[in-house]
Amino acid sequence: MSLNKIDSIPDYRLLKRVVIIAVAALILVSAAFFVWKSIAEYRLTIHGAELQTRGYASALNEHAGRALNEADTVLQEVIKQVATNGGISAQSSESLRRIASAQVRITPQVASIILVNRNGLLFAHSLDAPVRQADVTDRDYFIHHRDNPSDTPYLSKPLKSRINGKWRITLSRPIRNAKGEFDGVAAVALDLDYFRKFYESLDLGDHGKIVMVRKDGVLLLAVPYKESDFAIDFKKSHLIRTHLPRSPIGTFHIPKGKALLESTARIISYASLDEFPVVAMANMDEDEVLSQWQQSALIQAVLVIAVSAALSLLAAGLLRQLRRIEESNRVLLQQQGEIVRSAEAWQTTFDAVADAIWVMDNDRVILRANKATEQIFGKPGEPVVGRRCCEVAHSNATPFAGCPFQKMLDSGHRASMQIMHGQQWYDVTVDPIRNDAGAITGAVHIVSDITELKLVEEQALENETRILGLLSAIPDAIFFKDAAGRWLLANNAGIELFRLQAVDYFGKTDSELAELVPERREALLACRESDRAAWEQQCRTHSEETITDPDGTIRVFDTIKIPLYKTDGSRRGMLVVERDISDQLQMEMQLRQAQKMEAIGHLAGGIAHDFNNLLTPILGYAEMVAARLQPGDPLGAKMAGISAAAHKAKDLTQQLLSFGRRQAVATAVIDLNEIIESFYIVLRRTIRESISIDLALDPAGAFIAADRSQMEQVILNLTVNAQDALGGKGTIAIETCKLFMDGESARLHPGMMDGDYILLAFHDSGCGMSSEVLAHIFEPFFTTKPAGHGTGLGLATVYGIVKQHNGHVSVLSREHEGTTFRIYLPAAAELAPVETMAPVAEPVRDHGEITVLVVEDNEMVRDMVREMLEGYSYRVLTAADGNNAIQVAADNRDKIDLLVSDIVMPGINGPELYEQLLLQIPSLRVVYISGYPMNPSLRKDTLEEEVNYLQKPFTAEALLERIRMVL
Description:
Layout: H1 13-84, H2 93-104, E1 110-117, E2 122-125, H3 140-147, E3 154-155, E4 159-160, E5 167-176, E6 182-191, H4 192-200, E7 209-214, E8 219-223, H5 238-243, E9 249-254, E10 266-272, E11 278-285, H6 286-352, E12 356-361, E13 366-369, H7 372-377, H8 389-394, H9 404-411, E14 415-421, E15 424-434, E16 440-449, H10 451-473, E17 477-482, E18 487-490, H11 492-497, H12 510-516, H13 521-537, E19 541-548, E20 554-565, E21 571-580, H14 582-628, H15 634-659, E22 668-671, H16 672-686, E23 691-696, E24 703-706, H17 708-725, E25 730-741, H18 743-746, E26 755-764, H19 771-774, H20 794-804, E27 808-813, E28 819-826, E29 851-855, H21 859-871, E30 875-879, H22 882-891, E31 898-902, H23 910-920, E32 925-930, E33 949-951, H24 956-966
Parallel strand pairs: 23-25, 29-30, 29-31, 31-32, 32-33
Antiparallel strand pairs: 1-2, 1-6, 3-5, 4-5, 5-6, 7-8, 7-11, 9-10, 10-11, 12-13, 12-16, 14-15, 15-16, 17-18, 17-21, 19-20, 20-21, 22-24, 25-26, 26-28, 27-28
């Protein structure tokens, strides 16, 4: 076969550039002309509308001025006739009505004329005979003339006639008697229909509007109009605020949404009347004005786009034809070399294949064979072409039974088999070769060495067995589905989760399994929907799913779904892993609750500390004032009331400090059973007689290391809380027992260590609590009681005391099923007596010889302590913080005997300050004062409990006693 060789390809690049530049230039010129023409027509359209509105505004100005002047002339004529006839008081209402009626007939814009006497009573009406007297003292025109001495006409706000209910504008003048005094009002009611008919004859478009307003912003008339328009204040309009102050006539534009009466953009022209405070406006809808221009511009734009598109298509067609010519030339060049190379490459590829490939005719004669035949069949150098396949493969003249070539001839389709020859495994496939008529004319025989593949299959089978064993041991539910959602594999946990023990799940979908396992129907259908979502997202999804057991238990599962794809992008299947996290979520919820209560505790302690700082000067100053009062002084009782209130506030802060776990604790080993039994009488007196209290105490005792008074507080608070939950009759059960909390049980209570605990349980048969209430019951000041009942600190105090004793609290409650509080306290081994040592009193020097340095960052407390001590003849030095105190001590090194210091201060705290001052004054003694209870972390060697520590608030007596003990 011969080909006409093409030596080179013509270069069409320059021609293509010329075509592109020419077409682009034509399109740009067309677009530029369109833009210029559109802008020019737009400006011309807007200018024409401005001229039109300006002309209408001028005509409106002239018409309104003429109508108002004529009405004013009528008004003056009526006033003149009234004055000529002796004034309004000398006339009858009928005579005045005839005068008014005569004037109405000659002026069509005047709807009626009214006369009002000085008392605001309608005296005459041109349309009403006999006149029905009406009080018009509320009308603005009457008020204006009554209070204004000017005789100038007044144009009122639009108002509805009390006779016919039509809207009117009143033009009025005052009537004065012979002495020049106010004697009444004459007014003409201008017929708005007269103006409206004229305005409606003007062509301002379908959405144009004519407006007449007073210069003070009162709307007089709008055409077309709605009654609600009269409520709009035009003082806020662009006209009144901006344009009218600049010029009595003009034209301006208002953008869309800024006009008062319309929501569209407007073109407005206005003209102000010379004789009256009235402005006439004509405005047009800018969108309506531009509609014809927009249609024209749209048609022109379509034409430009069409021309541009036609030019672009023409250029694209020409460029495409040039590319085709170039591509044809390029293909011809490539084909010339490829035809020669393809024959050589085919044979090279044929020989490079590792499989033995034969092309045979229907008589099994090999027509063509590759080089791999020699290696696989062990016949190097021997010719195989022209021989039958059975001779080459088996050294037999006839085929063996089960020959794949014969199977191919019989079925007309591919036939295959695997055979072992020696130590090797081979895969044999025979594919038919057909002519154009579909008849088999031969076959392609391929023999592949699959020994390594067989080894891999055996290894894969072993691995599969090993993996299935691992999956069965994993507690998470794991299962795999194919692309159609059919179950192929599930481990033991997955089978148990979906109750598939008695079901052959293989090959079934979620919907089919839902019918076979009714108790897991909802879970399986939900699984189907979440599978669909994972396929849609085309990535691994992570979600939480819930499954409800037949007993009502709701379990939460952390579900991971991984869609798997084949190399061609098609779906392979879905891998699902579900882990039961119900216990984990419960523990996390308990941990969050504990952290929240810890934060609230810190807040409550801080509030109590600051409150104690406020109570300290209140108690101190109250005591000092009371000490200076004479016996029987009436102020004594009031000061006692102040002290009593402050002590109650002090008790409140103690409860807050208990919740914040900052209350001082006197710990001893006590028997909780003995406390409950001895406290039973108090509980019985406190609780209603209709409520029974049942005790179930551990006979072996319930020994704990605790503060007895605080345990009594816990018992009392929980008992009172149980009473409040019982409406009438009921039972409160109190139980103690010793139990061991192992690691699994302790994990349910964040922060709990495993070990022996004493359980104190309170159960009531009351109303129970909702989950919303349970989330807040231990928070300070939270209460479900009515206003005025309870402080909301009872359970908060219980929580703080239990936590301060390293215990834990849990609550079980359901509405209408009662409530159980369980308190776990670390168990103690045995009872131990509490040893106390009485302080040894030492001689105290005369107060006047003692110098005290008071260090307190709260100014009120500092001043109060200074006044207390000075009142008892102590010499007092003061400092606001530790650094200031060091300087004061340096200036008075040999004079200071005692340091009275706050513990927690900015910068240097109290114990640190005392340690530094001891270096300067070795004999210095100290008394600490603080709004917090004693903090063991600050005690060290300088803070002696019950000796040199005083908690705020305190009295002068307590401070002096503590100083006496220290000195």
